[in-house]
Amino acid sequence: MRLSPLLKRIAIGMLAGLAFGLIISEATYFFLRNGEDRSAQVIEINIPPGTSQKIQAGFPEPSLPASMTFVTGDTLVVNNRDSVTHQLGPLFIPAGSSASLKLDAVQKYAASCTFRPDQYFGLDVRPPLTLQTRLVGIVQAGLPMGFLFVLYGVFAIPMKKVAPA
Amino acid sequence: VPGERFALLMNKKSLIAASAAIAALAVIALYVYLTDKPTLHGSVIDPPPSAAEVRLTDFNGQPFTLENERGNVTLVYFGFTNCPDECPLTMAQLKLAMGELGPDSDRTTVVLVTTDPGRDTPPALKEFLGRFHGSFVGLTGAPDQLAQVWKDYGVTVMDGGETHSNYIYVIDTAGNLVETLLPDVPPADIAADVRLLLDAD
Q: Smallest Cα–Cα separation from B101: which of B11, B14, B199?
């Protein structure tokens, strides 16, 4: 099947645009991904015995990072093995109990936290980054570029005149 | 003959296939029933500890204890009547939740424990809460009594009561602290949680 020169330029332009979108989107994903390319799961944080005493004495609590990235649908579980009640943002955890919260909404905030020396804990809840999200990104970047390539190919580069048979 | 045709259809293989299909449907229904149970919307505490006793005085000058609320779901919030934002918004959310609950609101107690006893006199508490719902209870007490309740519930009170922790504590009918809710939880979710706890009673 032979395509007319115009259709060939449109096809090449769209394919080049999608290839461009693929490279840009996937390169961005590769360099900026931060743990959100997974399905929802249960994430546990343990508060060991004696934490409040260590905090009051000025010792750092090394087991907990300053911030964590979650995806929507994750369940955050905090197990309080300490002898006093602790709080982590929306979670209130009595001594000897656990508190769990399903993170349903995309949000990013510095939550007050009683078991970190600086009293703050960064909670960053992002939408899960699935294959579908990446495909949408490729199409969203690739289609406009494809149209631009097509416009350039059709109007900026003169067509060769086909000799009559 | 129709009778013979029916007998032919209902041979042994058909019966086995039909039984297998019914059994598969029953297993799927059981799985959905077991896994699709309604859940609480807040930060769920497991195992739920017995809620610390609240021995204070209500805005009518009567003694209040959580023990007397057994059989009801009790929603405890800490705040103050001159609050310009979170406290009235939370009370409005709880008022809407009471509306959603309908008759079940009779078994629901909403309690506001003041964080500003200096200005929150019993009449001030009564006037403030009366704007939202006739059944809401305002509590105050001696400074040491209030300090003990604040401490038991991990409530940090600063700036003369104007800065305070911001949870709704949900206490079930048996007096256990089962979850904490943030005030921005939709009233429908608050009502669903209360109903779930009443049904579990």
A: B199
